[in-house]
Every structure is written in structure tokens, then in C-alpha cells.
């Protein structure tokens, strides 16, 4: 089983069994016409291959063949799933640190292992400075991120995000999401409460720690004026 995991982790699958539909097909591939001529029995020829008396190299046992066949199929399905589900899959994001950071977090946010809050300070289409806190997992579920990862569109805060502020018009909004509650009237500044584990995320940059199970990452990039990502590791109650 270790070999099967190695095949999957290396990203190759196992091509030695993928071409054969059944174990019998695998054995038949190692039986020559000369073998059949002298033995006059296909089943006997298969048994000799299985025992190692015919064919090249050490043959796989039936259990080994089935295990490798299953591992190869799982690899194929996982690859198809990654291609279908992850918007960042296969995209060249070199030179775009913010998009790279989002790609690294995409699978974990889609699966619920992680809930990331993005603080983005940037300019809108009218060249007005805007900033906001964005629930990455929620955005992934409610819109197509393909245009962002292909750079056809720029990911910016919206009035419908957890927090939004337009520095020119002074428009200010806040909204709860399925993952976070917004606590805007706290004396310590803006806070977010994770709805799954009820942990508080403090986004005050002066605070040494943003909260339990939460890390803060400053993303150095030319894509926006400022980007900070708060990653909250969600832990279900047992």
C-alpha cells in the first residue's frame, strides 16, 4: 500500500496497471503465442505467469494488482476533481503574490478546514480608494473565481462584503456571512466572530496576536495598495 501512496503523492498514478481492465488481462499480456502453443491451455498459462514461471520480472499478485488499480483510479478521479473544482488549478500565477496566496488557500477554504479573511486596500474603477474585509470561503461559494485567477478581473472589496469603506465618498457597510459575525461597535475596534467555533478574530494590526487558531500574513504585492490575510483554523466541537 505504501507504493500506491507513493504513486499518488508523486503525481504520476500507476501506468503499469492502468491499461488492463482485469487481472486476467494483465496475466494474458505476459503469455506468448509460443506458451499457448505448447501448453494448449490459457488458464494454465495464466497460473504459470502468476507463479513467476512465465513473463518478465516479478508478477503482481491479484491483491497487489487490485490495490494498484484502485490507487490509479483514485488518482485519476482526484486529478479530475481538482481540475473541475479548484479555480486556481493549472494557472500560472508567477509574479502575482496575492493570487498565489489565494491559490494556496483555495482547497482548504472550499473544504471548510480553513476560513480566511482578506483585508484589501485598493482603488476601484473610478480611481477611488476603497478597503474592506472579505470572507474568502463565502466568496468562493457564491461566485466564479476563474476570472480572478486568469487576471481577467481584479478581486476588490464590495459593499456586500463583511466590511467595506470608500475613502472618498465615506460609504461604510458591514455584513455578516455564513462563517463570520461582524462586531463593529467594540471599543477595541472591528472584530469578527467565527460562527463555527465562536472564536474572535481581532484585525487590529497593533495586536500581537489576531486570536486563537488564527494567523496574520502581510502579502507584499503590487496588485493592491495593501493586502493582509487572516487564516482561521476551524475546529469542530466534539
TrEMBL record:
Instruction: State the source organism's domain of life.
Output: Eukaryota
**PANTHER family, alphabetized:** CILIA- AND FLAGELLA-ASSOCIATED PROTEIN 299 (PTHR33588)
- Any one GO CC term of the record: nucleus
Keyword tags: Cytoplasm, Nucleus
InterPro entries linked: DUF4464
Q: What does the UniProt record say this protein does?
A: May be involved in spermatogenesis.
Q: Say yes or no: keyword Cytoplasm present.
A: yes
- Put simply, this protein is called Cilia- and flagella-associated protein 299
What Pfam families does this protein map onto?
DUF4464
Q: Where in the cell is it found?
A: Cytoplasm; Nucleus
Amino acid at each position: 500500500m505504501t507504493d500506491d501512496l507513493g504513486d499518488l503523492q508523486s503525481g504520476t498514478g500507476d501506468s503499469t496497471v492502468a491499461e488492463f481492465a482485469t487481472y486476467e488481462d494483465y496475466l494474458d499480456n505476459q503469455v506468448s503465442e509460443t506458451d499457448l502453443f505448447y501448453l494448449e491451455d490459457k488458464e494454465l498459462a495464466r497460473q504459470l505467469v502468476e507463479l513467476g514461471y512465465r513473463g518478465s520480472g516479478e508478477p503482481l499478485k491479484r491483491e497487489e494488482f487490485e490495490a494498484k488499480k484502485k490507487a490509479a483510479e483514485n488518482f485519476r478521479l482526484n486529478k479530475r476533481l481538482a481540475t473541475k473544482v479548484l479555480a486556481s488549478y493549472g494557472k500560472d500565477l508567477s509574479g502575482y503574490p496575492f493570487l498565489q496566496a489565494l491559490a494556496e488557500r483555495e482547497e482548504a477554504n472550499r473544504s471548510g478546514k480553513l476560513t480566511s479573511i482578506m483585508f484589501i486596500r485598493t482603488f476601484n474603477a473610478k480611481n477611488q480608494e476603497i478597503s474592506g474585509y472579505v470572507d474568502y470561503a463565502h466568496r468562493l461559494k457564491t461566485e466564479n473565481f476563474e476570472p480572478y485567477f486568469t487576471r481577467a478581473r481584479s478581486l476588490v472589496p464590495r459593499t456586500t462584503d463583511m466590511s467595506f469603506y470608500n475613502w472618498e465618498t465615506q460609504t461604510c457597510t458591514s455584513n455578516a456571512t455564513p462563517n463570520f459575525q461582524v462586531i463593529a461597535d467594540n471599543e477595541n475596534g472591528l472584530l469578527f466572530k467565527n460562527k463555527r467555533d465562536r472564536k474572535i478574530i481581532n484585525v487590529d494590526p497593533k495586536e500581537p496576536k489576531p486570536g486563537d487558531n488564527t494567523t496574520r500574513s502581510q502579502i507584499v504585492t503590487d496588485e493592491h495598495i495593501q493586502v493582509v490575510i487572516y487564516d482561521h483554523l476551524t475546529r469542530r466541537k466534539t
